[in-house]
Amino acid sequence: MGQKYQLPFKEGxxxxxxCLEEGYRGAWFRCKVQEISRRGGHxxxxxxxxxxxxxxxxxxxxxxxxxxxxxxxxxxxxxxxxVSDVSSNSDATLVFDGxxxxxxxxxxxxxxxxxxxxxxxxxxxxxxxxxxLPPPLGEGKTYDAFVKDLRPSLDWSPERGWFMPASxxxxxxRQYPNLLKLVSQGHAIVKGxxxxxxxxxSS
Length: 203
Prior knowledge:
Protein name: Agenet domain-containing protein
InterPro entries: Agenet-like_dom, Agenet_dom_plant
Pfam families: Agenet
Strand content: over 45%
Domain Agenet: 98-158
Structural class: mainly beta
């Protein structure tokens, strides 16, 4: 990263921060950007963690292990059968049908943070078996999670904004989370035939 600050994060912005510390690898924490500064040759952000009020504000390098450690606040989510207009004040709005399938990439809410992983098996009693991302970007463990605590995983980059990740299932098939529409910058991405995303006009 060059000397000039080129990322879109601003002081006072609500965001999510990734952790690569062992024991919390692959987890995203809700936070507020209090300050951005170049420290030790690297751009860093001073973060206040909303769900850990006893934690001191901490400086986090914005790039670690080739990964961007900060992203904007997760976009609002609406169930398909409960929304007629997906427009919102957010840069992106997610419309979801509320169902899950094996292979879906998810974020699991546990211990006041979101852990990135994949649904490996649907269980009874409203649960699913979740496998966290493998090391070094995740803890690689498997847990039984309530599906009410899941949200679809999304990727974000300064160039593309929010977009749907793809998981590789088997040798050649590509499977996408059950995302029906992602509205961003005036365009809608809807799940097309055979699970491939198709771009439409503005919603």
